[in-house]
Write a structure and sequence with these properties.
By secondary structure, the protein is an all-alpha fold. The protein folds into two domains: 5-113, Serine Threonine Protein Phosphatase 5, Tetratricopeptide repeat (Alpha Horseshoe); 118-289, no CATH class. The protein has helices spanning 5-18, 22-39, 44-58, 63-75, 79-92, 97-113, 118-124, 131-140, 144-147, 170-176, 200-214, 241-250, 269-289. Helix 4 packs antiparallel against helix 5 (79-92) and helix 11 (200-214) packs parallel to helix 13.
């Protein structure tokens, strides 16, 4: 984790030599696989496959081996091969069952979300999305800075937030700020907080604002007043209730699970991308209708 891979490989070699049985030895080779996955230097995938074959030559019943291989294929966007590895974990049925199911569900979202840009493909694999990364998705995957109604408005250039001056996603942020998307603005002091992770509620507020700005029919401006919340964890009195309802019952771009919306849960990259894909289809239909 500190980046001292030379020492890490020495320690992993000791693990191979000190293994007391075949399971321990196979796990040591899984450790080598994980080091390759972390390092991602030139030839990392070939090295990882070599260690994979060492591990399965010792035992073919080690779920950790197939799970790590599945993660490697996923990073390379070889999704069919990745799913095959995670399915093998489920077949062995010893450990990492929940994790493998989660990865399979994540791959399904990525495949449905269909990332088009290198940026989108990168974010799709992330475990949590920042505010700056959302602006990047809006630009690269949606082209929002070109199609949003506020893009046509004659507005002065927004002030540069002081906390994005040297940020790698400054260009994306400055394209989205003029659109005045609710939930994606600067605060009173002019800070944007580009590296703050976004939760599901905050994303719902942004997406509902885009929907209501760009799709005029049907209108849900007053449509959810007096309606009982269908979610056990979202009250009708919550300030974000309307946004959640617009994104779920209104336009079906976000999904609850088992009666819960999980309003403060993290926003995974695959989820963010899937919502944008569904939003893109809605906007395409809207333009065709016009």
């Amino acid at each position: 984790m500190l980046g001292n891979f030379e020492l890490a490989y020495e320690e992993m070699n000791r693990s191979v030599n000190d293994a007391k049985n075949k399971e321990e030895k196979a796990l040591a080779y899984v450790g080598f696989m994980k080091l390759s996955l972390m390092k991602k230097d030139q030839g990392w995938f070939d090295d990882l496959k070599t260690h994979f074959h060492h591990a399965i030559s010792i035992t073919k019943e080690m779920p950790e081996t197939y799970y790590t291989m599945g993660m490697a294929y996923k990073i390379r966007y070889e999704m069919d091969a990745s799913k095959e590895m995670f399915m093998k974990v489920l077949q062995i049925n010893r450990a990492l069952i929940w994790e493998a199911n989660e990865e399979l569900a994540d791959i399904e979202k990525i495949e449905e979300g269909q990332p088009q840009s290198p940026f989108g493909k990168k974010i799709a694999l992330s475990d949590g999305v920042t505010r700056a990364e959302i602006t990047g998705l809006f630009v690269e995957e949606l082209g929002l800075e070109r199609i949003h109604p506020n893009a046509m408005a004659d507005k002065t250039e927004p002030l540069l937030p002081s906390d994005i001056a040297a940020h790698s996603h400054k260009g994306y942020i400055m394209k989205i700020l003029p659109l005045q998307i609710r939930g994606l603005l600067t605060d009173r002091r002019g800070y944007f907080y580009p590296d703050v992770k976004t939760n599901r509620t905050e994303y719902a507020v942004m997406i509902s604002d885009i929907l209501e700005s760009m799709i005029k029919y049907p209108s849900f401006t007053h449509g959810f007043r007096g309606i009982r919340s269908p979610f056990e964890d979202v009250k009708e009195t919550a300030p974000y209730f309307h946004a959640v309802m617009v994104c779920t019952a209104g336009y079906l771009v976000m999904e609850p699970q088992y009666g819960f919306f999980n309003p403060f849960g993290k926003l995974k990259g695959s989820d963010a991308l899937l919502v944008i894909h569904r939003l893109k289809r809605l906007l395409q239909h809207e333009r065709q209708d016009k």
